[in-house]
Design brief:
The complex is a heterodimer of chains A (112) and B (115). By secondary structure, chain A is mainly β. Chain A contains no helices and nine strands. Chain A is globular and about 40 Å long. A five-stranded mixed β-sheet of chain A has the order 1-9-8-3-4, with no helix packed on it. Chain A has a four-stranded antiparallel β-sheet with strand order 2-7-6-5, with no helix packed on it. Chain B is an all-beta fold and 115 residues long. In chain B, the strands form two sheets. In chain B, strands 2, 4, 5, 6, 9, 10 and 11 form a seven-stranded mixed β-sheet that branches. Chain B has a four-stranded antiparallel β-sheet with strand order 1-3-8-7, with no helix packed on it. Chain B starts with a strand and ends with a strand. The mean pLDDT of chain B is 94. Classes of the chains: A mainly beta (112), B mainly beta (115). The interface between A and B is medium-sized, with 22 and 26 residues.
Chain lengths: 112, 115
């Protein structure tokens, strides 16, 4: 699996957009970008994933650069409940049997 | 969506005893499950891959005789921490491969404290 680089921590004001960056410069053509988050003392939760097009769901938006070497997860209106560690992971899609390997992630603190 | 149930959520045991943690896929069959360990303020570390009906595959540095994994059915994998010591105190998380968009669903974790 390609490695990813994320800032260790970020703050965001409640109600504002939280933009979490991720670098994955060695991503392969068949690898997707996945985002998970882990709220304290819980299991990781899937957020969103994409290959090369921007994606949006009820939780977040994912912006992937044209060269696919980096991406940004956007939480449009952050709430206190969005405080968590966010993990950016690159891997082949769900049809493969590859393992999910977690990096250090970004600890997001949403501030009132 | 797919649900993975992990039990117990918290357990305290005495040093030298063994503890079993269960991971169940509630509404789907999981031929492959994964076990992770997470120490405070650290990321999840993959311990082993559990395959139904066959021996688990352990990551480098994980003692297979200490962390016994059994995946006897398509909905249940168990992790037994044998002869537990205080340094085994950690948050243990399982995940199961499913047919959803993410491909994997995670359990809610088990907090093990060895005293």
């Amino acid at each position: 699996d390609a490695k990813t680089t994320q800032p260790p921590s970020m703050d965001c004001a409640e109600g504002r957009a939280a933009n979490l960056p991720c670098n994955h410069s060695t991503i392969s053509g068949n690898e997707y970008v996945y985002w998970y988050r882990q709220i304290h003392s819980q299991g990781p939760q899937y957020i969103i994933h994409g290959l090369k097009n921007n994606e949006t769901n009820e939780m977040a938006s994912l912006i992937i650069t044209e060269d696919r070497k980096s991406s940004t997860l956007i939480l449009p209106h952050a709430t206190l409940r969005d405080t968590a560690v966010y993990y950016c992971i690159v891997r082949v899609d769900r049809t493969s049997y590859d393992k999910v390997i977690f990096g250090p992630g970004t600890s997001l603190s949403v501030i009132p | 969506g797919a649900v993975v149930s992990q039990h117990p959520s918290r357990v305290i045991c005495k040093s030298g005893t063994s503890v079993k943690i269960e991971c169940r896929s509630l509404d789907f069959q999981a031929t492959t499950m994964f076990w992770y360990r997470q120490f405070p303020k650290q990321s999840l570390m993959l311990m082993a891959t559990s395959n139904e009906g066959s021996k688990a595959t352990y990551e480098q540095g994980v003692e297979k005789d200490k962390f016994l994994i059994n995946h006897a059915s398509l909905t249940l994998s168990t992790l037994t921490v044998t002869s537990a010591h205080p340094e085994d105190s950690s948050f243990y998380i399982c995940s199961a491969r499913d047919s959803g968009v993410a491909g994997y669903t995670f359990g809610s974790g088990t907090r093990l404290t060895v005293v």
